[in-house]
Each structure stands twice: as structure tokens, then as C-alpha cells.
Write a structure and sequence with these properties.
Blueprint lengths: L4 E9 L2 H12 L2 E3 L8 E5 L9 E7 L5 H4 L4 E5 L2 H12 L7
Parallel strand pairs: 1-4
Antiparallel strand pairs: 1-5, 2-3, 3-4
């Protein structure tokens, strides 16, 4: 059994409505509440949408005419045991390219 589980992932989209529709159709996720961020977006839920912990996809709407916004990355959040996290931090700290 794995000690790793997916918490949620965030993606960026230039078409919020089509992206919500895609994940709703393909994964049967349902739109629900999200914090009052200063940018448009949507949170999609698997299960009870009254608990933010059940949100599995965070969609961030971006303006295709804003070159700075197109270069940012998406996010994947995973749950790992503390022991695994400690080992990961040690491994990453040994990588010379990541110390910049």
C-alpha cells in the first residue's frame, strides 16, 4: 500500500467554463465553493462540497493576452507521511541546481 495520496491539483485555463465542463463530464466532479480569491476560478469537488478538503481540482482562470500569466506553473498537492517528507527534503537539499 502506498504512503502517498493526491490531495488536489491546480491548473490554469484560458477558458474557465470549458475546463469546468470537461472535468465535470469526464470525472463527474461538481463545482462548489472556493475562497474569495482576487482572480476568477473554480473548485471542483468529489463528494460533499461543504468541506474544502473534498475539492480535488482547482481551476485558475488566466487572460490569454497576459504573457506573464501564461508562464506560471500549475500545482499538484500530495499527502505524504512526515517521515517521507523529511526524506524528500533531505534529497532535494542535496540537489545543487535547486539551491539557487
Amino acid at each position: 500500500m502506498s504512503n502517498l495520496s493526491l490531495n488536489h491539483f491546480s491548473i490554469r485555463s484560458i477558458d474557465l467554463d470549458k475546463t469546468v465542463q470537461f472535468f465535470s463530464d469526464v470525472l463527474d466532479l461538481k463545482p462548489g465553493p472556493r475562497p474569495n480569491f482576487p482572480f476568477p476560478g473554480a473548485w471542483l469537488y468529489s463528494g460533499d462540497s461543504s468541506d474544502y478538503a473534498n475539492s480535488v481540482v482547482h481551476i485558475i482562470s488566466i487572460d490569454k493576452n497576459d504573457p506573464a500569466g501564461l508562464n506560471n506553473t500549475s500545482v499538484i498537492v500530495m499527502r505524504v507521511p512526515c517521515k517521507v517528507l523529511e526524506q524528500l527534503i533531505i534529497l532535494l537539499s542535496l540537489q545543487p541546481d535547486l539551491k539557487k
